[in-house]
Structure formats: C-alpha cells, structure tokens
Amino acid sequence: MLHITCPWCGPRDDNEFHYGGEAHILRPAAPEKLSDGEWAEYLFLKQNAKGPFLERWSHSAGCRQWFNVVRNTATDEIIEIYPMGELPKSPEGIKAYEGNWRRQSAAEKNAKAGVSGT
Amino acid sequence: MSGQSFRIRDKGRIDRSKPVRFTFDGKSYEGFEGDTLASALIANGVHLIGRSFKYHRPRGILAAGSEEPNALIQLGGGNKSEPNLRATQIEIFDGLEAASQNRWPCLKFDVGAVNSVFHRLFPAGFYYKTFMWPASLWLKYEHVIRHAAGLGKAPPDRDPDRYEKVHAHADVLIVGGGPAGLAAALAAGKTGARVILADETADWGGSLLSESDCEIDGKEPARWVEESVAELEAMPEVTLVKRCTITGYYDHNYLTGLERVSDHLGAAPEHTPRQRLWKIRAKRVVLATGALERPLVFTDNDRPGVMLSSAVRTYVNRYGVLPGRKTVIFTNNDDAYRTALALEDAHGRVAAIVDVRTSVTGPLADAVRAKGITVYENHGIVSVQGTQKVTSVEVMQLDANGTGVTGTAKSVNCDLIAMSGGWNPTVHLFSQSKGKLTWDTEMAAFIPGTASQALASTGACNGTMGLADSLKEGLKLGAEAAREAGHKGRAPAAPKATEPEQGGLRPLWITPGKAKLGRKGKHFVDFQNDVTAADVQLAAREGYRSVEHLKRYTTTGMGTDQGKTSNVNALAILSDVLASDIPAVGTTTFRPPYTPATIGAYTGRNVGKLFEPVRKTRIDEWARANGAKFEHVGQWMRAWYFPKQGETFRQAIDREVKAVRDGCGILDASTLGKIDIQGPDAAEFLNRIYTNAWLKLGVGRCRYGLMLKEDGMVMDDGVTTCIGENHYHMTTTTGGAANVLSWLEEWHQTEWPDLKVFFSSVTEQWSVVAINGPKSRAVLQKLCEDVDFSAEAFPFMAMKEGTVAGIPARLYRISFTGELSFEINVPARYGLALWEALMEAGKEFDITPYGTETMHVLRAEKGFIIVGQETDGTVNPLDLGMDWIVSKKKPDFVGKRSLERESMASPDRKQLVGLLTEDPQTVLPEGGHVVEKLKPEPPMEMLGHVTSSYYSPNCGRSIAMALIKGGHARHGQTLHVPLEDKVVKVTVTEPRFFDLEGERIDG
Fold this sequence. Notes:
The structure holds two protein chains of two kinds. Chain A is α+β, with helices and mostly antiparallel strands. Chain A is about 25% helix and about 30% strand. Chain A has helices at about 35-45, 90-100, 105-115, and strands at about 5, 10-15, 20, 50-60, 65-70, 80-85. In chain A, a hairpin with a 7-residue loop joins strand 4 and strand 5. By secondary structure, chain B is of the alpha+beta class. The relative contact order of chain B is 0.07. The mean pLDDT of chain B is about 95.
C-alpha cells in the first residue's frame, strides 16, 4: 500500500485516497474547433509511462482536496507532490511534463489559446 | 514416558512435567508441552503422515519449520476445522485432533497409490495433455481429478472464530527472532527507536535453539537468547510478537503479519481473538529471516524417514526426540556433519556419512571420523528401501563428472536419512519488496542484491552463514536502521561467538541413480506437487524454457509451500538442460503470503452486520413498526412496500399505486442525495455541469437537470433549487450522491478553480417526506398556516419555506409521479415527527404509506427514467428521447462536444422505448432480451433488453421500458422476448403509459 503525503493532512495510507489518472490534461477552451479525432485525444488518450509519471490524487476520505504527484510507475517511488494548477519542480517531473506528447497536441493548444495559466 | 519411545532423556526444551494428549487419525498419543505435532509424532515413532498430491505416495516429515511440504494436516472438526496446516508448526494442546489428508480409505492402504504404479501415464503437463480435449468434457474430468488429487477439506459453513486487526507504526521492523534478528533488535532498541520484532515460531532464538555445539560470550546460545529477550522486554519502545509470520512485503514499507494468538491453546480465551492481522508501516525494515536447507535430489528421496539434516538436529536438540535410531547422512557440505555429532551425542547411531564431495577435510570431518563413523567420499545414495519407512540404502561411487555411478553398490541399513544440499537464504520478503536477487556461486544460492525499499537483510537470509558474523552484522544493521529512522546511537560491541568451522559445498543438483533418470524410482524435486527431476527435464525438452512456464506446466513451486524447498533445485536442473547459467534462468516471482494465511484474519471483524455500515432514515423505526418490507439501495435500507395483513406483494403494490393516484400517498424520500452549493459562481458552475440552462433560475424555483460525463453519456439526474442569491440545493439519485459530490469537487478543483463555489453534502441533514396525489394539498394545508398552496401562488417547480406541524420546513413542489406532489424537507431530527403528523392529518383522506416499489411503478407509468436502470454508462440523452433538456444555445457544458459527434445521434443506437405485452397480464422480466427474428433456439440477434417492467394497476395492464436498437423508429412494431419457458410477443410504443398530456400535475 502506497504511503502518500497529503499536502493538507500529512502522510496517510493510499486507501484514504482516490486516484485521478494523468495530470495536466487541459480541457479545450473551444471544443467546437477540434475535430472528433483531436477531441478524442483529449478525452481518451493517456500516457502509459514506465518511470516518472505525473498524476492526480484526491484525499477522498480526508480533506477531499486534489493535488498532483510525480510517481515512478516502475518502483512506486513518490518523487514530488505539488498543488493543482502548478507544474512539477523536480528534474524527473519537469522531464516527464515536457516530454509528454500532449504538449504538442491540438487539444492543449486549443486550451492554452482560451485560458491563461496552466 | 508411556509410548514416547523415541524421546531423548536429557535433551529438548519441552516441559516433561506437562504431558499433553492428542489424537492423530483417531488414535491417541501423548507428547509434552512445547512439542509440535511433528515432534510429538516422532516421539511416538509415527513417520507416515500423509499421501502425496498426485501419486499418493506415503510421505513423512521432511522439515521442522514452515517450509514443510509433506506433513500437511487437517486440524479440528466442524466449522473450526482448518486444512493444510504443517505438522511442524502446530503446537500441541490437550484434546488436539489431527488427521492426515489426501488418503482414501486410510493412510496405510490408499487406493490412489495406483497412480504411482502407472506413473508413466502421469508425465509433466499430464492434465493439459490428457483432459483438454474435448473441451466440453473438462468440467466432468475436473470433478473426478479434484476428488482424486487434492489437499485438505474446507470447513462446511461459517468460520465461528473471531479475528482482529492491528495497525502498527514502527521506526524499525525486524522480521525473524534468530541470532541476527535479536542482535538487530538489541542495537535498534538501545537507540530508543520504536521497534517491532516478529517471529513466526513460539520461541525466540531461531536456529540457536537447534544447536548444541556453539557458544556466545562463553554461554550456551539459549542462555544468550533468554538474556537478550529479557533486555528487549525491558525496553518500553520495543514490541515483541511471537507466533507472527510476516506474510507480505508491499509498497512503501507496508508489511502484513499473521499472529496466531490462541491457536496453540485449542480454544481462544475470553476477549482473545484466534488470530490477529498486523498491518505495519515501518520507516526501516531489517530482514533476518534465516535460510532454508535444500533437499538433495536422489532416487526415492521422498520416503518417510528422509529428512532435512538441520531438521533432524532441531528434533534432537530442541524437541528431544530421535527421528531414527540408525541414520545415514547424505550431504554435499559440512553442516550435516554437525547433525551426525548431535545424533551421536543423543545416543542415536550414525551408520554412515555419504558425501558427494571428492575429498572431505576439516575439523567437523575430523570429529566425525574420530567417532568411528564411516565417510563415503564422492558417493551418492542410489536407492532407498522401505516404502512406509526407510529400512536401508544403497550407496555407490560417483563417476568423474558426477552424472553417473561406478563400482558396486554397498547396502547400509538405516531408518533415517538426513540430507543436506546446502542452504537457500529466505529471500521471499526481500523479493516481494521488489529487491533484485544475485547469485552467490560459493553458496550456490540466491542472495539479496539491490534493495528497492528502505530495508536491510542480515544473517543467513543475507548469505551471512557464520554465527559470529551474523551477530555482528545484525547489531550493525539494527543500529543503522534506527539511525536512518531518526534516532541516535552506535552498534554495541559484538559478543564473542564460537562454532565449528565449515568448508565449502559441491553443488550436485541431481544424484545419479543406477538406472536412467525417470526409470526405477523417482528423483523428487517438489515433494508437495510430486514433480520429479525427470518431469523438469521433460518440460524443458518440450520447450518450456522460461522458469515461469516450467512452473505452470509442471506445477513445481506451487501449492501451500510455494516451493520453499524445491525452487532452486528445479531451476538448477532446468538451467542444466538449457546449458545456461542459473542466474540467467532466474527465479519465479515470490508473491505474498509467505505461508498460507486464514482469510478470516484479513476479514477481521468486518463480517455479518459489520461487513458494511447500514444507513437508516429517521422514519425507519416507524416503517419497521408498521410492517414494511425493506430493500438495500446502496448502503441505505429503504422501505420497499407496506403489506397489510394477508396481502401478497402484488396486491400490496397494486393498492399503494392506485391509492397515490386516487387520493394521497406518502413516501420517505430522505435517502435522496442532497448537496448544498453556495458561492457567487454557483449558477455558472451548474450551467457548466448540467446539460440545460441555469443562469436565469429565480429564487424559489426548481429545475430538473441531467449530468453527463465528458464522453456524453448520462451520469446522474436530479432537481436543483435556487434557495437564495448564490445558494442552491441539489438533489441526486440515492446511490449516486457520493459520486456526484466527488464529480463536482473534481471539476471545481482541477478544471475551474477560479470559480467561487463551495459544496457540502447535506444528505444526512434533512429528512424528506414526499406526499403525492390529488389530495396531498388538502393534507398539507391542515398542518401549515404560513404557506399559500393555491396552484397560482405555489406553482409546479417552486420552493417555499414555511412551518409544517410546527416544524420549520422547505417545501418543494416537484413530482416523480406526475401527480400533485410536495417534498417536505425538515431538519433531520424532526423527520419522524413530521411523518407522524402527516399520517394523522391524512387519516381522513386515507393517506397511504408506500415504498420504493410503488415509487418505481408510478414513475414508469409516466416514463420517468432511473439513472442506472434505464442507463448504464453507454446511454446518451438522445437515446432516452431527452433532447429537450440538452441546451443548443450554451457554448459549452460537460459532455457537449462528445454529444455532437455524428455517431451519438445515429439511428442505429439503442434507444429507449415502451413495450406492451400481447397479453396485458404478462409482466416481462427485467433484463429480458428483445429480438426481431425469432429462431427455435439461441443464438438470435438481440436488439436490446428490458430495463424496467411492472404491472400498472392504473393502466390495467403490464408496462415495460427497453433499450432497443433503432427503437425510436420502431414504434408500432411487433417484437419478441424469448424466455426460458415461453416467448412473449410485444408491441413497441412511446416509453410513457399514463397521463400522456400531463394533466394531473396540479391535482
């Protein structure tokens, strides 16, 4: 069982948490401008990483807050925990973020054109 | 000493003043407190303990610990009975009842043993080769095979015992209470760290309790153990747990342990569980799990009386029993010579030592020779006589490369063979922790390599075999672990330890016999699964070259012992056939649990009523007192219907359903999910989450909303009301409440954190009573003076605050029945008072309480969907004919873009329709499949299935809804629902059956 440090409540067993899948999937600001294929990329395609992976968790049986985690999927090592709306600061996290195919996707460009921040 | 003729007078840690009586296969025996079942049986000269899994060969005791593959026992009777326990771990108590397994009709004469005669018919992969064709008969074969080849029997009914769980946090968890583990605990404990030390046996000391030839600081090892344990017990932060097997090593240093709290007492004392599951999170773990001795693979090495050499020493020194009066020792290393000396010391004769090494020297060999014991160098055992107990062996000289034998066979009489093939460090937990193993050529064994969690291995499990080295290493690693966990301190000085010096071993993975391998006798590799060296070689020749495939094909390493004694031998033989290195072949994956664990312990107290919490409304007790039948809706218990005396289910429902439409019905709707939503951006948030428009909903007005997932499929529905400026009250389905709250939180926190809006679950804060029917206004008016109930002043889909029966209330004029209806929300604690007041006021109108079943019939008459019944995550609003609620004007909402995909409006999708049966009295079963082209038997092309089906007394006939391929275009068509015993002809209609014009809503 993973031991996850909730930014609000401290270290807890993973059965207090809910897994939220890949992080930093920006919702397109103007979905109507995307083709069905581009929309499907946003909606269905997920990174299947072996190694550092950026993902979302929520402390569902605690404070109910969402946050981001950099976890090595091969070893389950938790490398970094950081708030929603921010980007990773660890070298592994930065590399995983920048190397993600999604950074170049039409859906992400659409999202960034419409809203500020990350 | 009645009967215990193999008891050694002056040895052992048993308590001779406390005799214990027990039975084995119905026969009564005596042992002493401190005995295991295995040692007590040996004391009584009993060596035939069970029959093997496949060949039903007679089997005895191989080991003295949890690695025992043969001596499996069914303990106790009735529902307390437990199968597959190892006789070597069972502590005896007065009245213990043990039985052998896998024998019929009795242990000494077993019919299944014919399997052994026909062994040529049972090669590796036998079941796969023989019984997989024709596939349809496998079920029948399997039934017979399961009967013939099995282990113990599961108890017939509920487990009557009590189990507990404990959650523990440790700075340092130390697994194993032998010399290295005790040393680690002493060093870690002295720093003040919070230490847990667990051992799977009943006694501290591990291997030290089996040795008589070593000293620690000039003392007997058992003495050092006593002093060390006393020192540990005096440390307030140290917890010692005996009889606790650490069964699993999971992520982030999370380990589970199974403590057998009272199994050794027979019956659990009051307030004591049978077993306790430990869930331990440790900052650092020190593994001191020891090593397991390897058997040698020689002809008929499974006969009762063939035992691991170290186990023989344990029985002699720890339990004071003699496993044989005349022993042949068969070894490839020096350690077995210690067994020879221990036996001699206990007045057991050693007939010979057979050693595969070409030249044996050193202090142990000298000591043995000085006793006049013959040592056959470069020899092997080529045959074993005696099927139910060893009577003699034949030994022959090995040829130059050890693959054959030469010269003439010498026969040696004996009743015990003590064998030693070297040691396998117990790396199971290390491996479970995802650590990488490395091959140690000198030991010819896998030892821990790179760790991937915060742990250290010490002592024999780390390949550190000497006593002095183990103690030193244990102290060092214990102190280190404590420091890494944040404590200060240095390792204490290591005690002085002496023991006989040992030389190296000769790995000889198969001892050749007189005939070709597989002929004239069997070389067993895996005793529990009856896998022989010939089986392993055959599998390799047939192409099972991966060790994982070999395992599954031959079943080696499976079963309750998971190959503790067999794995390395098997893969060494495999690598030999493949002409590959052992480390290149690798091991199979070690998985938890280390030894079998009772499922009851994992369940703990979460059984029966404590399996899951039951949620009850404040009106529950009234419903119970008034004869309601209940049903589970999620965790809620909801009143299902209220039968009057003598009424059938159908009569009760018909009465309730009619009463609502003719007069007035009352329903406890408290379980509906309720979420309080506040904040200046609440309306904007709802507008993005729901499919329809929410920005212009006035205060005191209600609106029905549909939520989609981002893929465009229906997720939940409910009515949301504007309570005040920036304040909304959302209702959800009963079962969906928690999910919807999480859904809202997720969108808010992760996608739209800029919106100022807050959500609170208020499901438990409100009791809700719904009154439905043309007379509901009249009932309510009697109890409420401050609300104008006229249709103009209090229109449909409006909310008013007022006082009902003196209770402050929110009244919602919403309807799930199509009738004039009010849902009265009061603070939860007034729920029962409100209900009783309404029942009293409604008496003159013949107010009728109803439950969920009537609610379902009434909504189905009107064609209202239930999310989760008419939908299943693949149904979109267009499929339901609910495009009226999907905004065309809003630029975006969750699910909008997906819903715009062409295929989402495809006429071929499954769409919601009504079904009317040809015979109005026939009620279709929900889930029934609908077909167009009827065939005499399946398969037929299925168009969809019935989602809801009831008898409607208001329509005077049965009604049903269904999801049918292309359903919207099929109105008027005749289709079929084939059932087990008949075919029902149905006509497709609109999914609405009653009050089609909606005229009843104002009463």
